[in-house]
Amino acid sequence: MDPRDLAFTGAAEQARLLTAGVVTAPALLDVYLDRIARFDRELRSYRVVLTDSARREAAAAQDRIEAGERLPLLGVPIAIKDDTDVAGELTTYGSSAHGPALAHDAEVVRRLREAGAVILGKTSVPELMIWPFTETLTFGATRNPWHTDFAPGGSSGGSAAAMAAGLAALALGSDGMGSIRIPSTWGGLFGIKPQRDRVSFAPHEGAWCGLSVYGPIARTVEDAALFLDVTAALPAAAGGFVAAAKRAPGRLRIALSTRVPPPLTARVGRAQRDAVAEAGVLLRELGHAVIERDPDYPPRAVLTQALPRYFRGVHDDAKALPRRERLDPRTRAFARIGGLVSDRRVASMRAAEGDIAARVNTIFDDVDVVITPGTATGPSRIGAYQRRGAISTLALVAARVPFQAIFNVTGQPAAVVPWGLDRHGIPTSIQLVGRPFDEATLLSLGAQIESARPWAERHPPMS
C-alpha cells in the first residue's frame, strides 16, 4: 500500500489492515515518523515525538497481533495533546513554566493504551490552552497545513494540524471553549465534543470549572466513534458508538441557525453561512425535516457563565505551575483576572447551570439536532495577536468562534462536520448540536453526511 495513502487511512481501517497482516505495526509507525521528519519542521504540530518509546510499543503490538490478540486500536499510532499526562513525559501546557515529568498516564491515555494504541507524541498547544491559535513564546507557532500563513486553530491546534497533514492516525483533543471543534473545522476534520464526563478528565477533573472535556479529532466519523467506545467512562449508547455511527439516523427534525449567541457579536462570513444553507438542502434531499429556528440562548449566559469560568480555570491552571514567572505576560494578565472570580461565584455559576441548559434545550422539544456554522470566519494569520493584551486578544478571537462556548456551559455533545473551503483554501464546517447524552444521533447523522458528501480524500497542500 502506498505510504501516503496509508497515512491518510483512518484509525479504524488501519486496525483492520494490521489484523489482516496487510501492514505491520512497526511499518505503519515508520510511515508517520517519516512524514513527521519531512513536514513537521515547518508545521510544528508536535511538541515532542516519542520515537524510541513508540518503536518499542509498535514492536510489542506486532508481537501481540501475531499471537492472535485482537484489540480495537492495537498498533495504531495516536497523538496526545500536551495538556494530557503521559507517563514519563512532561506535560508542558505550551509553557516553560511546567513541572517535572509525570509518573502516570491520564485516565484517557490509560484507556487508549489498554485498547492497544501506540503513543506517537505530544501535540502543540497555546500557553495554558487559552487561545484558538497555537503560538507560544516557548515553542513557536504551529501552522495550518491547508495554508501555512494561517493558524490551525486551538487549543488542540497541534492535534488538528497533525491529523490534517497525515502525521497521525487519530488525535486526542480537549475542549473547554471550542478547542476540539475550532481546529477540527479549520483542519477539514471530524471532531466531537462529547457529553461532559463521557470521557474521564482524571487526574484533572473539573478543569475550567467544569467546562473542559476530552474527545477525538479524527479523519472519519467511524474513527471518532471508535475513540469514544474505547475511552468512555459513562455508559455508551446501546451497542456502542461505532454501532451508532453505522446506523441510519432515520428521518430527523433539524433546525438551522446562524444566530450568534448573545451578548457576543460577530459577522458570520459568506462561506460559513453558505455551508449551513447547503447543509439544509442536502439534509432535505436525504429525507430530513429541516426548519430555520434559533435556540433560546439566555442573553448573558456566555458573559456570566462561560467567560468567568474560563478566566478562573486559567487562574487555577497557572496557580498549579511551579514556575509561574515564566508565563507570557498576556497569560499572567488573563490569570490575574481569573483570580477575581471567587469560589462562591463558581459555586453560584455551577448551581445556575441547569436552568441555562434547560432553556437552551427547549428547542429539542421540536427538533432532534441543531446545526450552526462551525465558526464565524476562518483562522487568524500567524502572528496576528503578538503585541496584544489579554482582553483585546479575547475580543478579537471571540468574533471568529462564537458558536462553541455556550455548549460547554450546557455540557451537551456537539460535533463539527467538514464542508467546503473558504477563499484562502481553508476548510469550513457545520456544527451539529445534540440533546444531552445523545452523541449517537450526531455520529449517525455525521456518518450519513460523510457518505453523501465525503471529505476524507481531501488533503491539504502541505501533505
Relevant terms:
single chain; 463 residues; alpha/beta; Amidase signature (AS) enzymes; eleven-stranded mixed β-sheet; two-stranded antiparallel sheet; 14% strand; Amidase_dom
How would you portray this structure in words?
It is a single chain. The protein has 463 residues and is α/β, with parallel strands linked by helices. The chain has one domain (3-452): Amidase signature (AS) domain (Amidase signature (AS) enzymes, Alpha-Beta Complex). The chain contains 16 helices and 13 strands. The strands form two sheets. The chain has an eleven-stranded mixed β-sheet, sandwiched between helices. The chain has a two-stranded antiparallel ribbon with strand order 4-5. Helix 6 (157-164) runs parallel beside helix 7 (181-187) and helix 8 (221-231) runs antiparallel to helix 16 (439-452).
